[in-house]
Design a protein that fits this description.
Oligomer: single chain
Pfam families: WCX (PF25583)
Mean pLDDT: 87
Structural class: alpha+beta
Largest sheet: 4 strands, antiparallel
Distance between the termini: 104 Å
Order of helices and strands: HHHEEHHHEEEEEEEEEHEH
Number of domains: 4
Radius of gyration: 28 Å
Low-confidence stretches: 1-8
Number of strands: 12
Strand order of the largest sheet: 10-11-9-12
Protein name: WCX domain-containing protein
Number of helices: 8
Shape: elongated
C-alpha cells in the first residue's frame, strides 16, 4: 500500500532537499549532474523518492535564488554559490568574537575577508571592540583585485606541489625570474610573504645542499606574475633548517621557549640566563628578532653567524659614534 505524505512530511522533504543542495554548493562549485547524483543518494538514504530529480533540482535552485541566495550558473558551467543569505543566529560572545576577527583582518590588509565576516554576522559599529587597538600597518590591501588574483594563483601552485616560476620586483626595483620548489604563504610582522625553497640558488656560507640559505621570502605585493606549474614535483618534504644555539640573559633571563622549533638546553638556577637551541628556516627573520633584544641576547653557535652579528653590532655602534661627534 502506497504511503501518503502529510503536508508536514512534504514540507520537511523540500526543506531538507534545499539544505542539502546549499551544503553541497557551499563546499565547492558543482555541475548539475553531480548535484543530482549526490542529492539522489541523500534522498535514498532517508527513504525518500528521487524521481524527477533534475526538475526538482532546477525548481529548488530557482526558489533559493528568490530567497536571496546568489547562485551563479551558465551553459556548460557548474553551479556556484556566490553569496549566502542564510540567517546566522549568534550569541553576544560570538558576535564579539566575529567583530574582533573582522577588526584584526581589516587592519592586517584583508578588508574583503573582514567585510565577509561583517556581513555573515550582520555586525554594526556597536559590535566593534573599543578596548583593543592594533597597528599592523600592512604595505597594501591584499583584497585588491590584482593581489587577490596573485594569492589565488599561488594557492593553486601550492596545491599542485610542482615547481613553478614567479616574476619578482625587488625593493630596489630590479626584476628577476625565480624558480620555486616547495612553497607556502606566511604572514610575518603584518606582511604576507611567499616563502619558497629556491633549488638553483648557490649558497655562500654553507656547502651542504639543500640548506637554509636557499629559503627565500618574497613579498606577495611585489610578485608581478605567477607562471604555470611545471611537471617536476617538489624535491623537498620540509624546508631545510639551521640549528642555532643562543643565550637569553638580563631582563630575558627567565625566557621560556614558546615556539615549536625551540627547546631549552640549559638554565641558570638563579634565573640569570637560559640557553636555547632552535631550528630556523629563515636567517634574516631570526637575525631581526635577536637584534631587537639588544644585549639581552647572544648567539653562541654556529660561529660564522656569531661573527656576522658581531660585525653588524660593531657597524651600528660606529654609526652612533659618528652621529655623536
Amino acid at each position: 500500500m502506497k504511503k501518503t505524505l502529510s503536508k508536514n512530511d512534504n514540507n520537511y522533504n523540500q526543506l531538507a532537499f534545499a539544505l542539502e543542495i546549499l551544503k553541497l554548493l557551499a563546499e565547492k562549485p558543482r555541475k548539475r549532474e553531480e548535484i543530482a547524483t549526490l542529492v539522489s543518494d541523500f534522498l535514498e538514504q532517508h527513504e525518500k523518492s528521487a524521481e524527477d530529480i533534475l526538475q526538482k533540482l532546477t525548481r529548488t535552485i530557482r526558489r533559493l535564488r528568490e530567497c536571496g541566495f546568489e547562485i551563479r550558473s551558465a551553459p556548460n558551467r557548474p553551479y556556484e554559490l556566490v553569496e549566502s543569505s542564510f540567517p546566522v543566529i549568534l550569541t553576544r560572545e560570538q558576535r564579539q568574537a566575529l567583530a574582533l576577527s573582522a577588526y584584526f583582518l581589516s587592519d592586517m590588509g584583508f578588508s574583503a575577508q573582514a567585510s565577509q565576516i561583517t556581513r555573515i554576522g550582520k555586525l554594526t559599529e556597536a559590535d566593534l571592540p573599543t578596548d583593543v587597538k592594533v597597528n599592523f600597518s600592512p604595505p597594501v590591501d591584499y583584497s585588491e583585485d590584482r593581489l587577490e588574483e596573485t594569492v589565488r594563483s599561488l594557492q593553486e601552485r601550492l596545491q599542485q606541489q610542482c615547481r613553478y616560476t614567479i616574476r619578482y620586483r625587488s625593493s630596489k626595483g630590479n626584476e628577476q625570474n625565480w624558480d620555486c620548489d616547495r612553497s607556502e604563504l606566511r604572514l610575518h610582522n603584518g606582511v604576507l610573504y611567499l616563502f619558497a625553497f629556491i633549488p638553483d640558488f648557490s649558497p655562500r656560507l654553507i656547502e651542504k645542499r639543500p640548506n637554509v640559505e636557499q629559503n627565500f621570502a618574497f613579498r606577495v605585493d611585489r610578485i608581478l606574475t605567477v607562471r604555470a606549474a611545471s611537471t617536476t614535483p617538489w624535491s623537498l618534504f620540509h624546508f631545510p633548517t639551521l640549528e642555532i644555539r643562543y643565550r637569553m640573559s638580563g631582563a630575558l633571563g627567565t625566557y621560556q621557549p614558546r615556539r615549536a622549533h625551540e627547546r631549552e638546553s640549559r638554565r641558570d638556577e638563579d634565573g640569570n640566563w637560559v640557553e636555547i637551541i632552535t631550528q630556523e628556516d629563515y636567517l634574516f627573520w631570526f637575525r631581526q628578532r635577536i637584534l631587537q633584544y639588544g644585549s639581552n641576547a647572544q648567539i653562541l653557535e654556529p660561529k660564522w653567524l656569531v661573527q656576522q652579528i658581531a660585525q653588524e653590532l660593531q657597524q651600528a655602534s660606529a654609526v652612533y659614534g659618528i652621529e655623536r661627534d
